[in-house]
Specification:
Elements (H helix, E strand, L loop, with lengths): L5 E8 L4 H11 L3 E10 L4 E9 L4 H15 L3 E6 L5 E6 L4 H11 L6 E7 L5 H6 L3 E4 L7 H14 L2 E6 L8 H6 L4 E6 L10 H8 L3 E8 L9 E8 L6 H24 L3 E4 L2 E4 L2
Parallel strand pairs: 5-6, 5-8, 6-7, 8-9
Antiparallel strand pairs: 1-3, 1-4, 2-3, 9-10, 10-11, 12-13
Length: about 280
């Protein structure tokens, strides 16, 4: 069984001695640093750091003391987490199943430092598969007419399960501003990289017709502005004239799965700092 470590993500105005003061605090309290990384935004003069260490005493108490020290004495914005606290995750899905199956199997294989708590869908197609995995499945139909009521039901499901993260595994609905505010936890989305060039249906058909040479995938935090939230992870793969539409679709789905999984893992490992609609990722 792994021992508990404390993970702190900090950012704030740069000042001399920040790294020294933080590492000295950990040393003086008997801690042993396992990982430390920092970055400075030279234009904004903002300092960012991720530090992880093993405490000698009660981890929860030491995390609270460090939070107070970093906030009150250093003037930093700070998020502190324990490595053994695994957040519960709600998975939203429609009909497309590639990210759905891939993500569930990664959770079941122990690759993610979190617990998949429930599946929420606006369709019934993946209910049997969800139940075969032993996961609670909630079918919540969504139309233009019932969207406020449907989202209220979805919010209740997420909160009843105590979820601290929502992931949109090709959930083909736009979450409203109200949902994103009321859910009170991060939401991660995945989509192909053709937007805005090839919007609408059949993007891989459009890309094939245009003769594109790269296809990609983007994982980001969802915000009120559609597909404009802070980007967590992106990747691309080359294609050529020999690739058919099924080839592009298969390669695109493969890429979406790996990009999505990596983004979720980064979040659950507390390796992402969001600042000014972009991210600092301590990968």
């Amino acid at each position: 069984m792994k021992s508990t470590t404390i993970i702190a993500l900090l950012h704030g105005p740069d000042q001399p001695g920040l790294v020294s003061r933080m590492s000295s605090w950990i040393f003086q309290h008997g801690g042993n640093i396992h990982h430390a990384d920092q970055h400075k935004d030279l234009q904004a003069n903002i300092f960012f750091q991720r530090v992880e260490w093993s405490p000698t005493g009660d981890a929860k108490e030491e995390a609270a003391r460090f939070r107070a020290f970093a906030s009150e004495e250093l003037g930093m914005n700070v998020h502190v987490a324990l490595s053994t606290n695994w957040p519960k995750v709600a998975l939203f899905v429609s009909r497309l199943n590639h990210c759905f199956h891939d993500l569930i199997l990664r959770f079941k294989a122990g690759e993610m430092n979190g617990e998949l708590a429930c599946i929420v869908s606006n369709h019934k197609e993946l209910q049997a598969a969800s139940e075969s995995y032993g996961l609670s499945y909630y079918h919540v139909p969504v139309t233009k007419a019932n969207k406020p009521e449907a989202e209220a039901e979805q919010l209740k499901i997420v909160k009843d399960h105590g979820c601290e993260l929502v992931v949109m595994a090709r959930y083909m609905q736009v979450l409203s501003d109200n949902f994103l505010t009321e859910v009170d936890c991060p939401v991660i989305n995945i989509h192909h990289s053709f937007l805005p060039a090839f919007a609408g249906g059949k993007p891989y058909h459009q890309a094939h017709e245009r003769g594109v040479k790269l296809i990609g995938a983007t994982a980001h935090y969802a915000t009120a502005e559609l597909d404009k939230g802070p980007i967590i992870h992106q990747d691309v793969i080359r294609i050529n004239h020999r690739n058919s539409i099924p080839d592009l679709t298969r390669k695109g789905k493969d890429l979406e799965k790996t990009v999505f999984a990596h983004a979720i893992r980064l979040h659950l490992d507390n390796r992402i700092l969001v600042y000014n609609n972009k991210t600092v990722v301590f990968d």
